[in-house]
Design goal:
Oligomer: heterodimer
Number of strands of chain B: 0
Shape of chain B: globular
Largest sheet of chain B: none
Shape of chain A: flat
Order of helices and strands of chain B: HHHH
Number of strands of chain A: 0
Strand content of chain A: under 5%
Largest interface: A-B, 10 and 13 residues
Helix content of chain B: 55-70%
Chain lengths: 137, 56
């Protein structure tokens, strides 16, 4: 398994775990409407996500065989582009579905969570597509 | 020559050389020419094209 595929696996697992923790915990502890704790918890969630991802990548980097780490070549750049394109459509669809909820009287708090959810799903699609494309070729 | 050695000389990863060998990835013309250059052979002797109707 290449360094970049391992990185994609780590990022996918980190996103799934932190997003699960976020969505299982936050919506039930914060009350609907403007909440002073929302920005704090969301910020904490993002910092945690970046930190765990960084630690995972450092571990993969340190344990990688000598000479196994090089810059991205054309095949890897193509994989990145294809994965990003898939994630873009998911993000776009998620936001297009979430934002009109405001017109139907949905709580802005719920709309914000729907947008965050679409971002998380887009990340999951991005990393899953990368893993699939790395394994296929 | 190992895949790793060829990859280093061409400037791609070993996984990309493996994918090219298995026919799972078609390299750009630039990489194809670099591979041919490493072997000192013309491009058509290193790479072939198989069309859908079986002609090559």
């Amino acid at each position: 398994m290449s360094f970049r595929e391992k990185s994609a696996w780590i990022s996918l697992i980190v996103v799934l775990l932190t997003a699960a923790a976020f969505f299982l915990h936050v919506p039930w502890t914060l009350r609907p409407g403007p909440s002073p704790g929302l920005a704090h918890v969301t910020g904490l969630f993002l910092i945690l996500l970046v930190l765990i991802d960084l630690i995972g990548r450092i571990l993969v980097f340190v344990t990688a065989p000598k000479g196994g780490l090089t810059g991205k070549d054309e095949r890897e750049r193509l994989i990145d582009l294809k994965a990003a394109r898939s994630a873009f459509y998911v993000l776009l669809a998620g936001n297009l579905l979430a934002l009109p909820l405001v017109h139907f009287g949905a709580d802005p708090f719920a709309v914000a969570f729907a947008v965050v959810l679409s971002i998380v799903v887009a990340f999951v699609v991005n990393y899953s597509a990368r893993i699939y494309l790395y394994r296929r070729s | 020559m190992t895949q790793q050695e060829l990859a280093e000389r061409v400037g791609v990863t070993r996984q990309t050389i493996n994918a090219i060998e298995l026919g799972k990835y078609s390299p750009s013309l630039e990489v194809a020419f670099r591979i041919a250059l490493v072997f000192g052979l013309p491009l058509e002797q290193v790479f072939g094209y198989e069309s859908g109707d079986g002609e090559s």
